[in-house]
Every structure is written in structure tokens, then in C-alpha cells.
Amino acid sequence: MSTYERHQTILELLKQRGSVKVTELASELDASEGTIRNDLTALEQQKQLTRIRGGAIPINGNTVAPIFKSRVQINADSKKKIARWASELVSDGDVILLDASSTAYHMATYLEDRRNIVVVTNHIETARALSIDPTKRIILLGGYLRPDGLAVTGEIGQESLKNLYLNIAFVSCVGFSFAVGLMEADLQEANLKRQILRSATYVVALIDSSKFNRVGLKPFATIDQISHLVTDDGIAPEMLERLRKSNIELTICGESSVQSLTPQRDTKKHYRIGFANLSESLIFSVDVRRGLERASKATDKLDIIYVDNNLDGQTAVQLADELIDQGVNLVIEYQIDELAGNIIMNKFSQHRIPVIAVDIPIVGATYFGVDNFTAGYMAGQALGRWIRTHWEGRVDLVIVLEERRAGPLPGARIQGQLNGLQELVGRIADESFIFIDSGNSSQTSYDHTLPVLRELPLHSKLAFVCFNDDAAIGALRAVRELGIEKNVAIVGQGADRQTRGEIRDLNSPIIGSTAFMPEQYGEHLIDLALKLVDGVPLPPAVYMEHQFIDASNIDEFYPE
What we know:
It is a single chain. This protein has about 550 residues and is α/β, with parallel strands linked by helices. Helices cover about 40% and strands about 20% of the residues. It has four domains: about 5-55, Arc Repressor Mutant, subunit A (Orthogonal Bundle); about 65-255, 3-Layer(aba) Sandwich (Rossmann fold), CATH 3.40.50; about 270-370, 3-Layer(aba) Sandwich (Rossmann fold), CATH 3.40.50; about 370-515, Rossmann fold (3-Layer(aba) Sandwich). The two termini are about 35 Å apart.
């Protein structure tokens, strides 16, 4: 069966069944699970389906009841932004509650990568949307079915909640005012939400700006019962100012930035810190941002403004101007383009804004992150040991997935890999190296690697060294598509969540990756930021400690 025929068959099965699983497709289509994963990824990029853990669902998820579909479209952009950032408060293993609001329903899309969570809800469509993922446990509260057929409510659900412990409850409302609090239009729904607040340790209010100063029939929560409020940037300045003086955390979702605001108290000085992330599409940089959010909550003197550089130098330059306009006291800059870094640093310097550069050095900024040569050298040595053990020290070609935009210092991790490899297997002839632009993304790596592999002799023994894990994953996709896994060894850089899954698979060509520990970046970055804004002298560079992760030690550093 050709790739095109497999794709059409997958789409037809998805239409018939409503969801598909990798294991079932591999068996039915007589293909490897790796090939099926590649197929699903390709179809998702073509916007023909949505990937979930272990399979896929239609691009718009389950078929939604028509009455609810129209409700979901009201203020949809604002609700999706709120839902996306509210979902960042959920960690693996949490027990959460999602109410029957359309905003909470949107959260289902953004919880795909959370593992072992329990979701309690009284909303039938939300339960259906989440139930497709077998890694999540869904508890649908009992009660009376509402006339619209979308949710259950009443005393039965309230009684059930009395015996449940919730880490986080996400609730919306039809209206909010400081005088009354959060209000509902339905008496039973309001009573259910009163019990939700009693059962939850942490309560997050999802309120788009259209709900402020609107009135509902029945109040169910005062402002001091709310732990965190997530809204959009349509909120009126005077409302924002009053909320800042309340004892709650605030997240304001804008068009190109998100503000995370701690309670404003007159006795403590507050700093505004900008974090320009590398890309919200990369697992590694998402983990960096999540770590930063966790660390910032440990102090009550920081407001964080988040923007997404989207792997683009021009975007990073434009967002630098936005952060300056928002009056930041310091910027944590994570961007890939060495040339753009000079322009960005010049802008911040003119406004006397100190900068911390993450992983990609910027002249004039405090550097934090990867010890590039050392990290690469660890991976090169590990690759060399593997080749000596499994291939008797012989390798036909070394494929180098690089990223030249980053400049020579991050490029040192490639040089470290090549040095470490050749120390163990001997000098490799120049003609045995193939250099490929990884584009710092798995898709570009796949696109550039696949045609190269197709031109190589079928049984060549290929060793891959990679700029980062995204490059390694892209190469892996190309290798699996051609079915040459047994003749390939890949080492990565970063040891992100996706790569760790491959390392645990003993049949994967990815034999290991140097761990950068992105989940730990946040606490270091916040510590450095606070010292800089307080005028404490810092060294020009602060490095993470690294460890090469493979199947022999992964559970020591990342226990499941």
C-alpha cells in the first residue's frame, strides 16, 4: 500500500469510527507503528485530523450537538485563548473539574499531553471530547439532564462532589461584579458550583471580558473564593486595577502576548519581566516556559509577560518592541537567529533593560542554558561507544543535522558530538559526512532528511548527530518511513518528553540524548532575573549541568 493509499484508508476509518488507534491501524494496514505515527503526523499537518496520545480524532473532535456548536462560537477567539492558558495550570496526575461552560469545553483540546489526569465534569460534550484519550479518566457527574441535553445538574451531582477531592476546579459564569461575585442564570447550576468550590483546593475562574459587570440570576462565588482568574485583554482598565488589588492571581490573554500577574500589594515592589519564548510549538521550549511559570509563583513580586518568537528572527524583533512598550524591567530572550539577537539587544540597551539570553548567546546579555560543547561531546562519546558495541566500530556515513542560524557558539554542540564520536571510532573521512539544515524543527528536519536518505545505499550504517531533539525526531520520522531503523543510530540534544519516550523504546534508533533539563530552567532564570533587577553582579554565563540519558539510566533521572 502506498503512502497516499494508507492516508486515504486512515481518513475513511476515522470517518467511520470517530477515532483511530496506532496499534489497530498498524495491524490492519500491515505497517509498523512508527509508519502509522508518521502518517498521522502528516495528516495532522495537512489539517485533516487531530493527533491524540495513541491515535487520532477528527479535526474538530467529536461531532458536537448543534445547539452547543452555536454557543461555542460566541466570543470563540477569546474563549480559546483563555482555555489554552488555563490548561497550563494542569499538571500530570491532577484531579480537575471542568464545568459546563463552552470555555471549559475548549480546554479539552489543550489537555492532550497531560498524563494520568482525572477529569470530573457535568458537561456531556466535554466528557465525550476527553473520553477518546485512554490515558485520561473521565467522571461524569450524575443528576438531572438539562432541557438542552448538554449537561446534568441537581442534588445528585452535589452529593457526589462531597466525596471527591479536586486539585483544581475550572468554572465560568454568565456575569461578574465586585458587589455580588460570580453569577449563574440557572439556580441548580449555581448550587452545583457552590459545592464545586467546597470540594476544590484551587479555583480558576474563566471569564471573558464580555462577562464583567453583567448580572445573572444567582451568585455562587465571591471574589475572595477565587484563586486565579483568566480573562482576555478586552478587560476595562478600572476592572483590571481592582482585580490587581484582590488576593488572586490574574492571567490576561492578548493577541500576541499573555500577562501573568500576581496580587498587587503596596508594601512590595513589583517587577515586570518579559519572556520571549523560542516557540510554543516545540516541546522543549514549552517545558522551559512551564518551569518559568511554576518558579514565578514562588515569589509574589513578579509579573510575567509571555510572547512567542515562533522560531523567527523578524518576529522576535517586533516582539521586543512590544515588550518595551509594556514597560518591562527585564527580558528573558529565547530566540534562534544570531543576527536578530544583535538588533534585539540594541533595542533593550537603549531603554536600559537587562537581558538574559537562553541557550542562544546574545552579545551584552547574561547567558543561561546549555554548555554547548560539553553537551555535544557527551552525546558523541555515547554514540561512539554504541557503534563500537553494535557495529564493531564501523560507520558508513555520519549525517549532521545542524542549525546555522544559531551561530558558532550553539554550533559548538555539533562540534562536540563530532569530536566525541571520532575519539572512540577513529577519524572519519570528510566525504563520509552529510550536513543537513534541521531548521530547528522536526518537520524541516524530516523534509530535508528524507530525500537524502532515499539516495543512499540501502544497507548503509548511518549515524546521526543532531542540533536538538526536534531534529532527531524529524530524522526518526524519515528513517521509519523508509524502514531502515536497524541500520541507524541517532543521538539527540535536550532529552525532551517526546525523545524520552523513544529512549524507553528499545527498538527505537534514538539511542539517547544529552539532558538539558528544561523543566528546571525556570527556577534558575527567576533567580537570575531577581538578582539582575536588584543590581546584583552576575557572571557573563551560567550553565546547566548535563547528563547523557539512555535506556540504562532514564528511570534514575526521569522516573515514570
